[in-house]
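fyi for ur records
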Amino acid sequence: MIQVVQFVAGGVLLILGADWLVKGASLLAARFGVSPLVIGLTVVAFGTSAPELAVSVLSSATGQSDIAVGNVVGSNIFNVLLILGVSAIAAPLIVQHQLVILDVPLMIAASVVVWLFSLDGEIGFVDGIILFASLIAYLTFLLINARRGKLSPAIETPELPFEEDSGEQAPGVASNLFWIALGLAGLVIGSNFLVEAAVSFATWLGVSQLVVGLTVVAVGTSLPELATSVMASIRGERDIAVGNVVGSNLFNLLCVLGLTGIVAPDGVSVSSSAIEFDMPVMIVVAIACLPIFFHGNSILRWEGWLFFGYFVLYVARTVLSVTDSSSVTNVDAALQWFFLPLTAITLMVITVREFRRRTGSGGEFRRRTDDQPDNESAT
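which gave:
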């Protein structure tokens, strides 16, 4: 009964925390004239990645490197497949042009660099310095150009919870920061409650702790991103929903792995299975974002279902690799000879069609309306 209450309380805190965080972030963006996308890429993304940072740095400092690396790689895969998938299913997402030309390519490059750093079996001190320095450079570039209005200018002021003519004063910076801090606290506490309750359920059901670590813990540290992005999508702050995922992935790769490499006494060891399977999957998932984001600068509901389907396959493959290794060969064969080629062909077709559409219209950008994704996804 205690675990049930803890599970319910964690879910409530996640929902409330996500709502408070999106509210504070959108108001802060409006007050400083910074686009919601930039807020999603920085304040919201880094805040919701706090569980990954805490788990990875603590585990690496105590010599549990597998948890640190697995947490980051697994969270990045889940962020795209599960969070973007569920958010797009809830409401088709609009993707800012900045993500297509800057942030997603950086996410792909960071994923590849982390994999290259890991080929010698560890992420060392120098690797950590390079990754963390790259994060500082990215943030500096992002914030300077955002303030100059060169990146993703705010195209729409978020709906504010006060009336201009009512005489009620707009919330101050301190009030906005309070909502952000309260939201982050709710997300962190709520995710911890849910993970602890889920581990207790798994133990009671007789599921091994290793399976719980590969699935529940990785998903659990991504619950703040999931709750925030879905809530932002429902509230209409779709830039925050997408920016949160891309920013969180960049934060995980550059900051979390960077700091773990710096603080780990003997570097962060990377297992061969992570190098041969999980990290390549992380890279493929990051690359898959580019043509989908490029397609009409939106993520349609059917594309959300595609991401979610691959999330289910990845989790199933991870569980089978521990519980029934003989079935992994069949799953890998299905992925290699059916699902991946079919997805690659689909992404290639929609990319070519989008390129022809833009070229046919003289290269002029045409954004879909909110109604268009629903109609197109139905076809």
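The first helix runs from residue 2 to 32. thats all i got for now
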